[in-house]
């Protein structure tokens, strides 16, 4: 199931596949994202507020940490420089960073301030409340001095620097200027994801990546036409001396204008959009990685745009892998979305999601004739985690199940293609054995989902998943919807 790359995408894929692993230091506001999942279906008798029935906690990397995770997933050697408190959130953040293969030796503990933590209460997919625990005051003089000491190392041990500013007080003017000087000392690049209205603090940086609203606020120029973007770009260059102004435009793509006046709007590459959360982090990460490796600004932005297309097609923040971006460059088929995996790729996905603190849901089946019951089942299964992987019986495996003459009616390729086209399905992998036991043990999902009709049959893989801290869920099925019923109806109509 391969499709040839075409034209420009072939060239971009070749660039991406050959990118060397570069060393990048991410400096900025480190945030722990906590998601409290539950239900909110009733009103409190004590006050006119929703009652939230808590079910589980999830912890993810946020802020500059998510930027670092994006870089690490792409293949960069990443270190983070920032401040955490001496608290449980700081310990958890350090552990998540280590799991994401991000170096934490430069983390600074400041006892005078808490680790920034954002808690989102989520009822199914609806966020009902957010609680922030943070300090927005500038870091203490002692913490700032320790950051300056890290940045003063010569020779500077990192090639390039990404400044991720969320306005929490870590990126002081002194820290920013020290980071820029450090990168320049080794010929590296500095890229800033900015915050606030005073962009003079970023003077000397190579690239800025504000979104439309941020660029308008920093320049005082309202963007209503293309001509306004030129004025904004010129003003940003005047303020900071940047090589090129980059403005992200959401669904409209990315605008950039170089110092020589050359400019371009790169249209969005998103084929489907579920959640724009984290798209900006993906853009700035890919842009930094590519520029650090010597890729032209034009090509760097095109690759960043393709990577952002992967991110927004997922629910919640997402760190696209190099493989996923390469797959996206391939074509617009389900395979080209990066959903169809080899066994080795499935294992890689499982490992990565665990490192990122995301819940992988796993289910399996023949899915010979896809019907409404299947769609409902897959949507419900997906709701138990952050990504759904579906293992599909090979044609030979189906034939051994004794499901009847001529089964499967649809080939493996056709069945996988249809599954990969569903929004609820994130990954599809094939298994050739009678059961998916070996695949389950190789991937080790957080959640193993099966239909409730398996309650008394024994769910293959239950022991393995539960022994590794996961759970097994029996998903309610739609009554009267089954492949057997569909087949019987077809046969009856031919009589």
Description of the structure:
This protein folds into two domains: 7-332, 3-Layer(aba) Sandwich (UDP-N-acetylmuramoyl-L-alanine:D-glutamate ligase); 339-493, HUPs (Rossmann fold, 3-Layer(aba) Sandwich). Helix content is 37%, strand content 23%. The chain is built from 17 helices and 21 strands. Strands 6-4-1-10-11-12-13-14-15 form a nine-stranded mixed β-sheet, sandwiched between helices. It has a six-stranded parallel β-sheet with strand order 16-19-18-17-20-21, with helices on both faces. The chain is globular. Residues 1-5 and 331-336 have low confidence and may be disordered.
Low-confidence stretches: 1-5, 331-336
User: From the alpha-carbon coordinates, what is the Rg to the nearest angstrom?
Assistant: 25 Å
Could you name the CATH topology of the largest domain? UDP-N-acetylmuramoyl-L-alanine:D-glutamate ligase
Under the CATH scheme, which class of the largest domain?
Answer: Alpha Beta
Report the portion of residues in β strands: 15-25%
What's the short version?
The protein is α/β, with parallel strands linked by helices and 495 residues long. The chain is 37% helix and 23% strand.
Question: What characteristics describe this protein?
Answer:
17 helices, 495 residues, 9-stranded mixed beta sheet, 2 domains, single chain, 21 strands, 37% helix, UDP-N-acetylmuramoyl-L-alanine:D-glutamate ligase, 6-stranded parallel beta sheet, disordered N terminus, 23% strand, Rossmann fold, alpha/beta
Write the layout of secondary structure elements.
Blueprint: H1 7-17, E1 23-28, E2 30-43, E3 50-63, H2 64-74, E4 77-81, E5 83-84, H3 88-99, E6 102-103, E7 108-109, E8 116-123, E9 126-133, H4 141-151, E10 160-164, H5 173-185, E11 190-193, E12 207-208, H6 212-219, H7 226-240, E13 244-248, E14 254-258, E15 263-266, H8 279-292, H9 297-312, H10 322-330, E16 340-341, H11 343-355, E17 360-365, H12 372-382, E18 387-393, H13 395-399, H14 412-420, E19 427-431, H15 437-443, E20 447-451, H16 462-467, E21 471-475, H17 483-493
Parallel strand pairs: 1-4, 1-10, 2-8, 4-6, 5-7, 10-11, 11-12, 12-13, 16-19, 17-18, 17-20, 18-19, 20-21
Antiparallel strand pairs: 2-3, 8-9, 13-14, 14-15
Helix pairs in contact: 1-10, 2-8, 4-5, 8-9, 9-10
